[in-house]
Amino acid sequence: MITNLQTLEKLGFEKWFQDHVDPERSAEFEIARVIVVHKDRYTITSGLDDVPAELVGKLLFSAASAVDYPAVGDWVLVKLYDGNTFAVIHEIIQRKSLLKRKTPGKKIEFQLIAANIDAAFIVQSLDHNFNLRRLERYLVMVNESNIRPVVLLSKSDLLTSDKIAGRIGQIHEIMPQLQVLPFSSNNESGLEHVKDLLKPGLTFCLLGSSGVGKTTLLNHLIGESVFKTKTVREKDSKGRHATTSRQLITLAGGAMVVDTPGMRELENFSVETGLDETFAEITALAGKCRFNDCSHTREQGCAVLAAVTEGTLSEKRYQNYMKMIRESIFNDMSYVEKRQKDKQFAKHCKTVMTHRKRQKTF
Ligand SMILES: Nc1nc2c(ncn2[C@@H]2O[C@H](COP(=O)(O)OP(=O)(O)OP(=O)(O)O)[C@@H](O)[C@H]2O)c(=O)[nH]1
Ligand SMILES: [Zn+2]
């Protein structure tokens, strides 16, 4: 496995990454992409071979938190051994995007889901799963992670086209620029629009509640994949053969899809800066409130409340924003804290919000 730029480009190694590698380092190491993370063992690829890999001791010892470890999708600098059958990861190349979630507990600690994803398909089915509030939550997370969101409305075979247009309208009412595609894996309508987005070299992920049809869609896309049956076999720490399925799947057309176990349990995410992007117009208004620590609930000179009164900001959107703020604070707390705080929650929210505002101001 010798670094070959053309092969790497096919895997998504664009100029941005190259610009973020020290030329001296790139002369010394090979560049590869992480396609499987399994506890402390990894599988990397250069586009030619899949090779089992471990972290170099220096990286292990200097890692201060989870974000210092490789995630699926990461670009890494490696050294190869034993006729290119084993690799040691020396460095993680700067990430363009990182999907992570907060682990339960008091400490601010994260679990990495995947790195360097270009676009996220947020899947909601057009039956009872359709829920604008949940959609907003996903959007916050995706925006926060620096990933482009695309909404896929699955099971379009269950609704009339009028009703589907109505739901898309509902989404566009609150998020006009968002790309929304209805599709059905059952009758295959709209699938070609999804496939049109799968440009070679781009990396995608599928997000959404259990049962919305992510696996069915993925099977449709993988059905045409040359990597369909390819699994990674390597020895685990006890020397047994372990079969790990590939978590970065390359589709026949050259696009890649991340499918990690962590991706499937992503209902509970923490929200922070993504909130500002998803509710950009409200954040802009909040900057004009008279008081720095305005809670936008009853203050004199609150620009957010004024906009609601004037009708330039819809009451519903305002309520969603307030609910999201409450939840984001709530999510950041541990379970025990949540139970303790449950009753005095309103009061707590206000304190934290004031605190956050202050942090921003100074
Ligand atoms: N009517 C209809 N049903 C579908 C469609 N796609 C999937 N389903 C059904 O929806 C159910 C759930 O589909 P999955 O693909 O397993 O859903 P998932 O999102 O992968 O769920 P998890 O694996 O739990 O995350 C299955 O019974 C599918 O047959 C569709 O386009 N139309
Ligand atoms: Zn205000």
UniProtKB/TrEMBL annotation:
Q: How is the cofactor bound?
A: Binds 1 zinc ion per subunit.
The cross-references to PROSITE patterns, in alphabetical order and at most eight, read:
ENGC_GTPASE (PS50936), G_CP (PS51721)
NCBIfam families in the cross-refs: ribosome small subunit-dependent GTPase A
Lineage at the top is: Bacteria, Pseudomonadati, Thermodesulfobacteriota, Desulfobacteria, Desulfobacterales
Q: What class of enzyme is it?
A: hydrolase
Q: Name its species.
A: Desulfotignum phosphitoxidans DSM 13687
Task: Describe the subunit structure.
Answer: Monomer. Associates with 30S ribosomal subunit, binds 16S rRNA.
Name of the protein described by the UniProt record: Small ribosomal subunit biogenesis GTPase RsgA
Query: Quick one: which gene encodes this?
Result: rsgA
Keywords in alphabetical order, please.
Answer: Cytoplasm, GTP-binding, Hydrolase, Metal-binding, Nucleotide-binding, Ribosome biogenesis, RNA-binding, rRNA-binding, Zinc
Which segments constitute the EngC GTPase domain?
A: 115-264
